[in-house]
Design the sequence.
């Protein structure tokens, strides 16, 4: 029986979903390194220990007709810009109230694969959203640590068993981990790596949401687990919240504008934290941050090391900060048409592409055309690297027998 609760929040009126678009011409084999899913209502059913199952996150229906996630007595709504794909543009800022008001590819794997085929996406890295948060942070905030860890494990089990295993060549398995106890978090990364996970996500600036900063040894077990299992650490911009807003600022507009500067700040913090020096095999992907700021960061740290004298605290005398960026970091672009010219400074091998389905920044279903507009005039070997070869190598993910171009 569906639980009905009353929140007193009027349900918004939305237009019907748009018809399926025609499949786009596939000009490029494409691995999208940043897409999102919406957890379906049954995500946690039967996946927690019996004594905790009744406390698992669940979808409830409100007296006003909303379908919302509820966890520890608190409701979690879908966010309008989380589920833009397939919705009329007039509704892009309207919060969807029910699952049937968002495209089923957001939360049903068979429909996701169909949408990937429509948009010309061979494989996809999927970040959580909804009740979980981009960085999988919600379950690390529970007072009952046993419950929080059980929810993390349940989410990973659902992602692997239902979302990845159904189409293992199409879905890159990315997990979440437990942040309130890094030893337990490391155990979860290792558990996942043994069954085929190649990626994990955590908040890019944890100090902004109450955890120790990346300069703290608190994170050593998680970093070491990632390095030793070759698990890519994906730092999604915005998983620690929007940038700080001056009073009166338009939160959505300014917050979305500042994704690039936020990525620069987070990347600089992780670089100077020294984790990549201590663990030279660590792989870090700066998700949804673009590439426009990367060459500037490289120029800046080169200046610190060669002229200003401000870089004397760098820990590795054999590998400079800029070389460490090229060795340990990858950068994810949605379009960046005016800064793809900096790829030689960044390193073509370090650039990845994303579609950001089904978000407001997303390019679906016209991702193939966006790729062509941005990369179409580059040398073919560079196009191959940016569209699929770099991602396949980083995430150890299979490619189709025949790749284009």
Sequence:
């Amino acid at each position: 029986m569906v639980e009905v609760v009353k929140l007193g929040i009027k349900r918004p009126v939305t237009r019907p979903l748009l018809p399926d678009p025609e499949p786009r011409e596939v000009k490029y084999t494409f691995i999208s390194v940043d897409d999102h899913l919406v957890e379906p209502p049954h995500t946690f059913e039967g996946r927690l220990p019996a004594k905790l199952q009744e406390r698992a996150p669940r979808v409830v229906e409100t007296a006003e007709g909303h379908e919302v996630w509820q966890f520890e007595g608190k409701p979690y709504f879908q966010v309008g810009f989380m589920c833009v794909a397939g919705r009329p543009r007039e509704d892009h800022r309207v919060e969807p109230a029910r699952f049937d008001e968002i495209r089923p590819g957001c939360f049903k794997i068979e429909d996701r694969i169909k949408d990937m085929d429509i948009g010309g996406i061979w494989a996809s890295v999927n970040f959580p959203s909804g009740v979980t948060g981009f960085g999988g942070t919600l379950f690390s905030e529970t007072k009952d640590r046993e419950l929080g860890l059980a929810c993390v494990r349940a989410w990973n089990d659902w992602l692997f068993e239902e979302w990845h295993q159904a189409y293992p060549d199409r879905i890159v398995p990315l997990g979440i981990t437990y942040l309130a106890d890094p030893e337990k978090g490391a155990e979860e990364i290792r558990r996942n790596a043994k069954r085929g996970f190649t990626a994990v996500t955590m908040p890019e600036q944890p100090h902004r949401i109450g955890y120790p900063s990346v300069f703290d040894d608190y994170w050593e077990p998680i970093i070491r687990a990632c390095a030793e299992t070759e698990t890519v650490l994906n730092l999604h911009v915005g998983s620690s919240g929007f940038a700080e807003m001056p009073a009166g600022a338009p939160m959505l507009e300014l917050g979305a504008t500042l994704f690039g500067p936020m990525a620069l700040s987070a990347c600089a913090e992780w670089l100077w934290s020294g984790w990549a020096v201590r663990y030279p095999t660590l792989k870090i992907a700066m998700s949804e941050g673009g590439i426009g700021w990367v060459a500037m960061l490289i120029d800046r740290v080169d200046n610190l090391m060669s002229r200003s004298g401000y870089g004397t605290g760098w820990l590795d005398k054999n590998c400079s900060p800029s070389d460490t960026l090229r060795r340990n970091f990858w950068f994810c672009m949605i379009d960046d048409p005016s800064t793809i010219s900096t790829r030689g400074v960044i390193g073509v091998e370090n650039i990845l592409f994303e579609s950001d389905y089904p978000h407001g920044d997303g390019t679906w279903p016209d991702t193939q055309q966006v790729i062509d507009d941005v990369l179409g005039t580059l040398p073919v070997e560079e196009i191959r690297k940016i569209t699929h070869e770099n991602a396949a190598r980083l995430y150890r993910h299979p490619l189709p027998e025949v790749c284009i171009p």
